[in-house]
Design brief:
two-stranded antiparallel ribbon; single chain; 6 strands; mainly beta
Length: 145
């Protein structure tokens, strides 16, 4: 238990601050950095007292010279709305992005599917072929037709 020098209350040994007054507690023992893991204790990667010269722009790997090609910094901005529609706004979200046209099964197609499903099970798929173009807002997904 640590005793706070400011208020005199006892705190847990591992606490750094007093839980009653917030005063910084001094630690009686200094922490030592943990040792290297077992896999790092080999001398395979230790270079000892070998000194390396200044870094070159190319490295020698197994007798070959490999050039150091760093990636160029790009100034490309993220693509927001490249072609805003003038005078158009989505009624739900208010964006001026052009609507996306999707092909969906029409209401008549679903009716034909249901009728043919009851009448003849074999030809019910014909109703799924009746499709229409639907304009959809790309931001909120609102159907605009």
């Amino acid at each position: 238990m640590n005793i706070c020098p400011n208020c005199g209350q006892s705190n847990a040994f591992e606490s750094r601050f007093c839980r009653f007054c917030g005063f910084l507690l001094t630690q009686p023992s200094q922490e030592t950095p943990p040792g290297r893991p077992y896999l790092w204790k080999t001398d395979e990667f230790d270079l000892g007292e070998q000194q390396h010269g200044p870094a070159n722009t190319s490295e020698h790997i197994r007798g070959r010279t490999v050039a150091d090609y760093s990636a160029p910094s790009s100034n490309i901005q993220p693509l927001g709305n490249p072609y805003p529609a003038v005078g158009y706004r989505c009624p739900r979200c208010g964006t001026n992005a052009l609507p996306v046209i999707e092909r969906r099964i029409s209401s008549a197609g679903w009716i034909v599917f249901a009728v043919l499903l009851v009448a003849t099970l074999i030809f019910c798929w014909i109703g799924l072929l009746l499709r229409e173009d639907v304009r959809v807002c790309p931001v909120c997904g609102f159907r605009l037709n």
